[in-house]
# Entry
Amino acid sequence: MKEPLIKSVSKYVKLDTEEEIIFKNFWTEKTLEKGDYLLRNGETCRTDNFVIRGALKAFYINSENGKEEILYFAIDQWWATDIESFQKQSPSMYNIQAIEKTELLQIRYDSFQEMLKQIPKLERFFRIILENYLGSLQKRIVFNNVFDAEQRYFDFLENYPEVADKMPQYLIASYLGISAEFLSRIRTKNKPY
# Structure
């Protein structure tokens, strides 16, 4: 089950056989059933999580209207972690929940630090992962502030087709910051005839 993670790492960092064995020993397997929480608001994120297969949503409950606001999705070969909570070992502001049965590889915070000491070149891999995440987050901020809902929806479809295929439309609408009804109108308006 650890091979997808090794494959992901090998895109950026080459581990020798001994390093691969050491690396694998730091990770544990976890399965979440649909609806199970990986993390709840107020809890400390104790693990970094790599999705082997499945789908998760990270969300915040808006205190003003009680609605769920989707922060991100995580599907096969993606990461699902509250980075700030994990790095600072402080309470999380949001929730991470399984949308379907999900298989994960997890590493605890102290084990993560030890792994980086034992295999220093992994610092490069995790730096690249964080840079990619930061880049997508910056793009999302710009798109949310500059583009209308229809443009944001088509950008989402173009950049994340595999996510769009897996997620219910009401969750995609929440991610885009629009109502499910409005998303339905956008989709109806743009249906090919």
User: Anything to note?
Assistant: The first helix runs from residue 3 to 10. The mean pLDDT is 94. Residues 3-121 form a domain with the Jelly Rolls fold (CATH 2.60.120.10).
